[in-house]
Write a structure and sequence with these properties.
Mean pLDDT: 89
Strand content: under 5%
CATH architecture of one domain: Orthogonal Bundle
Strand order of the largest sheet: 1-2
Largest sheet: 2 strands, antiparallel
Distance between the termini: 55 Å
CATH topology of one domain: Histone, subunit A
Low-confidence stretches: none
Radius of gyration: 29 Å
Order of helices and strands: HHHEE
Number of helices: 3
Length: 95
């Protein structure tokens, strides 16, 4: 795909990127190479490939949903500098 410096300038404007005039030819070349690679990938026949969400053939291991620790709220609240009705009190940060 042929990319012009004007195309790159337009994309840079839309993306809010600043590209200097001296870098414009190199960026245009790189942009063109990326789009050529995308065009090349689009020519590959993927009709017989099954879509997948993850390239790794793994299953998510789930742990049993059981309580593993006792409620230690009192011990945790004992170290709080300020508390009320079982909740931590913190300074107000938003008016």
């Amino acid at each position: 795909m042929s990319v012009t410096p004007q195309d790159v300038e337009k994309v840079a404007l839309l993306a809010r990127l600043a590209i200097s005039e001296s870098d414009l030819p190199e960026v245009t070349e790189r942009f063109s190479r990326v789009l050529n690679l995308v065009d090349e990938l689009n020519t590959i026949d993927t009709e017989s490939v099954t879509p997948m969400s993850n390239p790794h053939d793994m299953e998510q291991r789930l742990r049993p949903d059981i309580v593993t620790r006792d409620d230690n709220r009192k011990a945790l609240m004992a170290s709080a500098p300020a508390q009320e009705q079982g909740y931590f009190l913190v300074p107000k940060v938003i008016d």
